[in-house]
Amino acid sequence: MTKEYQDWPDHTLEPAWATIGNFDGVHLGHQALINRVINQAKSDGVQSLVVTFWPHPRVFFTKTVEGYYLNNQKEKRDLLAASGVDTVLCLPFDQSLADMNTKEFIAKLNSIVPLKGLIVGESFALGKGRLGTGEVLQKVCDDFGIKCVHISPELFDGQVISSQRIRQALDSGDVKLVASLLGRSFTLSGYVAPGRQEGTKLGFPTANLYFDSHRKLPRFGVYACLVDLDGKFYKGVTNVGIRPTFDDGLSPSIETLLLDFDDNIYYKLIHVHFIENIRDEVKFKSIADLVEQINIDKTNARRILTDGT
């Protein structure tokens, strides 16, 4: 079982091979890096360690958090633990940490976790001003007698897999590409909250998701999805957006119409797995036009979720 620390531990940990990063999304590139650390640690008979941060440094410096994270803090912890790494050290990213230079950070980490080695990506930078890039980090590690390995990034379709690329794919609504980069479907989780009942009045009762506003959302539109409710999966159609036919467009909502399902699930926890974009969100001239389009969306979602095309 993975051991987790939410701050610098007050005792010395066992020697380890480590990697350091934000790991937002825990995508296939992150997974490959972590697997490399795990395998190297097993080979040398030491622990494997992931060092990460919360909040994300960009959020800390820009003070902008709305709609940024690919995962919330709990989701990231769960994904890192599922990787099989022995220990996760999640450090609070504050001004004192931001002010540490590369040597100061490695010195403190090494005093708590005797480092056998460090494995990072080629573009990794550590320390104040992100000055601890390749040669700088290598020299610091050499000074402490720590092996330092820089590895090439993972590619998909000839391009680097990165958290930023995933955000860009979400901005275009390409959740199929996002799934290819993550190694799993893009998922939003939350509790079902009572809404304004417009869908019910039209004969299409929807589950209104109370979601974490810090999470990055896909492009506003309609998506074929699979909904995990109490461990059972249901086909569904999810609208992400501002519901322009009804609302004034002030804040986004996530509403899911579960197909072949009519139970009351208010206040239930659901996990919405986005499979494919069906269309963009549009404002309809009439309610009749909206109802007609919802029926078309249901047909398209069934097709996508049944045969994948």
Plain-language structure description:
With 309 residues, the chain is α/β, with parallel strands linked by helices. The chain contains ten helices and 14 strands. The protein has helices spanning 28-44, 57-62, 73-82, 95-98, 102-112, 134-144, 163-171, 175-182, 198-201, 287-307; strands spanning 3-5, 16-20, 47-54, 87-92, 115-121, 147-151, 155-156, 159-160, 186-193, 207-210, 221-229, 232-241, 253-258, 269-280. The strands form three sheets. A six-stranded parallel sheet has the order 1-4-3-2-5-6, with helices on both faces. A six-stranded antiparallel β-barrel has the order 9-10-13-12-11-14. A hairpin with a 2-residue loop joins strand 7 (155-156) and strand 8 (159-160). The longest helix is centred in the last third of the chain and has 21 residues, at 287-307.
Main attributes of the structure:
309 residues; alpha/beta; six-stranded antiparallel β-barrel; elongated
Q: Could you give the order of the helices and strands?
A: EEHEHHEHHEHEEEHHEHEEEEEH
Q: Report the count of strand segments.
A: 14
- Main sheet specs: 6 strands, parallel
Annotation field: number of helices:
10
Radius of gyration: 22 Å
The spatial strand order of the largest sheet comes to: 1-4-3-2-5-6
Helix content: 25-40%
Distance between the termini: 39 Å
- Average pLDDT confidence is 93
Structural class: alpha/beta
Shape: elongated
Proportion of residues in extended strands:
25-35%
Extract low-pLDDT stretches.
none
What's the helix and strand layout?
Layout: E1 3-5, E2 16-20, H1 28-44, E3 47-54, H2 57-62, H3 73-82, E4 87-92, H4 95-98, H5 102-112, E5 115-121, H6 134-144, E6 147-151, E7 155-156, E8 159-160, H7 163-171, H8 175-182, E9 186-193, H9 198-201, E10 207-210, E11 221-229, E12 232-241, E13 253-258, E14 269-280, H10 287-307
Parallel strand pairs: 1-4, 2-3, 2-5, 3-4, 5-6
Antiparallel strand pairs: 7-8, 9-10, 9-14, 10-13, 11-12, 11-14, 12-13
